[in-house]
Structures
1.
Amino acid sequence: MKHVDRHDPATRTWVNDAIRAVEADANRSCDTHLHVFPLPPSWGVDLYLKDESVHPTGSLKHRLARSLFLYGLSNGWIGPSTTIIEASSGSTAVSEAYFARLLGLPFIAVIPATTSPEKREIIEFYGGKCHLVDDPGKIYEESARLAQETGGHYMDQFTYAERATDWRGNNNIAESIYEQMAMERFPVPAWIVVGAGTGGTSATIGRYIRYRRHSTRLCVADPEGSSFYPSWVTGTAHPGKPSRIEGIGRPRVEPSFQPMVIDRMTSVPDATSIAAMRWVNEVTHHQVGASTGTSVAAAMEIIREMRGHGIRGSVVTLICDSSSRYKGTYEQDSWLEKNGIDITPDLADFRALFRR
Ligand SMILES: Cc1ncc(COP(=O)(O)O)c(C=O)c1O
C-alpha cells in the first residue's frame, strides 16, 4: 500500500475560522427590505423594489462575494496567505475587498479604467488595490495573469456566480422575495425583473421559480450594446460593447448566464435607464443607481402591458445599488451631455404615468 497525506491542520483551522467569520457577517445582518413602489392602487398592479443597496457593502454583490468566498474556502482554493484577484466592473470588487479584509487577505481588483471614482475609493478604503485596464474586454485575461504572477486565486465571478449560490434556497435572494411577498394582495409575482452582469442573479431566481413550481415569469433587462440581448434572441453569440450602465450588460455572454431560465429579455436604451433612475429617485426618495433604472424601465413596460390586457398582479425588481456611487456620472447633467445622452423625453414619459 502507498499513501500521500496532504492534510494541513493549521490551514484547516484557518479555513474553519474563515468560514465562521463569513457566516458571522451574514448572521449580524437582517434581510433587505422589499419596498412598495407607489403606483396608483386602482391600476391593480403592484410593483416592489427589493433594496439590495442596504447590504454592508452597498449592493447586491455583497451576496455574491459572500457566496464566492464560501465556495473558494470550501473548495480549498483560498488559504491563509492567498492573494484574491477579481475581474469586476466595480461593485463585486467593493464587496470582495470587504471580505478579503475580514479574512486578512490581500485583494486586487482588475477593473475598467472608466469605473466610477466613488467605487475605486471604497475598494481602497477596504485595503484593496485597483488595477486599471483600458480595454474592459481584457479584465479576464489580466486577472488570470495576475493570479499566476502572485500565486493568488482569481475568483472569476463571471464563471462561478451561478454555481456558488445555493439556488434551491438557503436564504438566497429568490427565497427571500417569495417569503417577503407572502402577505401581499398578489403574493406570487407575475414577473420578476432583474439585470445581468454575471447572470448569477437571473440564474438563481430563474432556477428557484422552476424548482418551486411558481407561475412567475423572469425578465432580464439589458442595457444597450450588451451581448446578452442579441445572443439570447438569436441563439448565437453576438459580441457587444462595454456597457455604460455600470454593473450590468457585458461585451460577451458570460459563462454564468443561463439563457433557458429566462422568459423575456428587454433591451433598454441608456437614456431610458437613466431617466428611470431619476424618476425612481423623485417618486420614492430611494436614491438608486442606473442599473436599477434599467430594470424599472423594463418593469414599467410589463406593467403597461398588464394594464392594457386588464391583468392584475405583482411585479418585483431590485435596487442593486445607490446613486451615491455615481455622483459624477448619471447624477450630472453635464456628464449626460458629454456622452450625448438626452433623458428629457423618457423622463417626461415616466412623469406622465401618474401624478404623485
Ligand atoms: C438591477 C440589477 N439586477 C441584477 C444585477 C445582477 O448582477 P449579476 O448578473 O452579476 O448577478 C445587477 C448588477 O449590477 C443589477 O444592477
2.
Amino acid sequence: MDEGSRAGTRPGARLSPQWVLHLLLGAAVLLCLGVAGLVLWLLPFARRRRRERAASCTVCHRHQRAGVVAVAGFAVLLLLGAAVRTQAAAGPLDQCSTRFTSGAEEVVAEEGPGRPPSSSGWWGRTRSAVTAPTSGVMLMATGALGMSHCSGSAVLVAFPPPPAPGGGGSVIGDVFVSWVPEADQAGSALPGQETYVQFGSDATAHPEQVEAIGRHESRHVDQWTIATVAGGPMALPVAYYLDSLVFPLSRNHFERAAGLGDGGYDTPPDFGPDPLWGPVGITAVVVLLLIRRRIRWASRVLVGGRSARDTGEEGRCPVHSRGWFRGSAH
Ligand SMILES: [Zn+2]
Ligand SMILES: [Zn+2]
C-alpha cells in the first residue's frame, strides 16, 4: 500500500511528513512536467505499476530515486528562476531603444514600438506568471554569460555587450535571447530568412518593423505559456525541435503560427516536409539508445514467445533483465 492511501485511512494523518512530502513532490512534478506529467504521476494504474517495479527490480528502484532527485532539483532551479523574474519585473530594467534612418539621419525613436495586445491584460499577466520560472533561469544564464538585459515592448531582451551586435535570437519563456554571433557572421540572417533586423537593445530598424518582430516573438510567448501548462518548460523546446527535424525554418509549425512575415521569414514555395536527414539520424540513434533495454526485452519475446514476456532475472523486472534473444537466468 502506498503512503497516500494509507494516510487517507488514518484520521488526522493528512499532516504526516509523508503526506507533506507527497504534496511537495506533486507540486514539483507539476512545475517540471506540467498538467500531463501530474496526471501521469497520479494515475492509479501508473502508481501501482511504479510501486510494483520498485519493489521487485533494483534498477527500477534506482531509476525512480534518480527521477525524484532530478525533478526536485529542476523544481528548485525553476523556483529560483521565478524569484529572479519577479525581481526583474519589480526592479528598474532599462527600456530597449530603437534606432532607424530617416533620410540621411539616424533617429532614436522616441515612442518606441507598440505593445502587442496579448502582452497586457489578464492574458499578459497569466503568461508572465506561467513563463516566469523559465524566463528567470534564462535571465540568470544570460547574466552569467555577461549579457545585458533590457525591457522591450513585448518581451525582455538579453543581448551581448557592445560592440558585439545581437544577430537574431530565440524567445525562451518571455526573454528574447540574442544569439552571440560568430565574428564573421555578425549581422547575417538565418538561411531562409531574407530580412535581417537587429531586434532588442538597440534595434536598427523602423519602429513598425521592430513592432512586427515584437508581435512575432509575443506569439512565441503565447506558445511557451500553453506548452508550459500542458507539459512543463521543456515541452515547447522539444516539440519545436522535433517539428524542425521534418519542417525546418519557415516550414516550422510554431514559426508559421507566430507569423512568418512578422518574424522576417521567407515564405517557402510549399509547406510540405523537408527533413533534415543528418539531425533526424542522430535523433533516431539517441532514441534507440534510450529504449535499448526494451529492444533487448523485445528480442527475447521474439525468440521465447509469451513466456519470455513476463520472466526475468532474480531482482530485475523483465525489461531490465539481461541477455539478448535468450534470458541469461532461465
Ligand atoms: Zn526494472
Ligand atoms: Zn519565431
